[in-house]
Design goal:
The protein has 2 domains: 9-40; 50-156, Dna Topoisomerase Vi A Subunit, Chain: A, domain 2. The chain has 6 helices and 6 strands, in the order H-H-E-E-E-H-E-H-E-H-E-H. It has helices spanning 9-21, 24-40, 75-84, 111-120, 134-146, 172-180, and strands spanning 42-43, 50-51, 68-72, 90-93, 125-128, 153-156. The strands form 2 sheets. A 4-stranded parallel beta sheet has the order 4-3-5-6. Helix 5 links the parallel strand 5 and strand 6.
């Protein structure tokens, strides 16, 4: 269990003991679900999302806005945005973020496929929705520069403080981004 991401020794032990207390049929059901997912899920050839179909449900949905493309680094980011219910366009999963220290350059990501898709599908807006990590920011900046000469609107998701956050506990970078992205709420008369 420790091999799973973000699972430390204590959590791994708690999970193992929890599973050992469960009835055998529940463990078999969990194991079969995991095996089925591993065997049946594949990558959508259009957007690179995970799917159990030839083309994922999002790409094949005719009700989705077809000229707006949200670019994410991974399927988890796509899932997080999709859960909001606020985006009705299409997605493009890069398959990672730029990270020279880890040997991940533009050639290791689905950037050529992104450019081809923008041309082929006549995309009018590309939303860069990468994480606010150093790698996510680098990826976003790289893509913004790459898309400068394309006839489309390029936007970046807003950044700043989460709802319910106290200013005194926010880090400097988050506060700086919040100040940079401030909006007008009233005019001087």
């Amino acid at each position: 269990m420790e091999k799973l991401p973000t699972i430390g020794p204590k959590t791994a032990q708690r999970l193992a003991f929890y599973l050992l207390k469960r009835p055998v049929f529940e463990i078999e059901k969990l194991a079969n679900a995991m095996l089925s997912a591993r065997k049946n899920l594949k990558t959508c050839p259009v957007c690179f999302n995970l799917t159990d179909r030839n083309i994922c449900r999002i790409c094949s949905d005719p009700k989705r806005e077809k000229h707006t493309l949200c670019v994410v680094c991974n399927v988890q980011e796509l899932s997080a945005i999709e859960k909001t219910g606020k985006f009705n366009g299409k997605y493009h999963v890069l398959g990672g973020a730029l990270s020279p220290l880890e040997g991940i350059g533009p050639d290791k990501l689905k950037i050529d496929e992104l450019l081809a898709r923008i041309r082929r599908e006549r995309i009018q807006e590309t939303i860069l929705a990468t994480s606010l990590t150093i790698q996510g920011e680098a990826t976003s900046l790289y893509l913004a520069k790459l898309l400068e000469n394309h006839p489309l609107k390029v936007t970046r998701i807003a950044v700043g403080l989460p709802v319910g956050a106290d200013l005194e506990y926010a880090d400097e970078l988050t506060l700086a981004k919040a100040l940079e992205g401030r909006k007008t709420v009233g005019q001087v008369k």
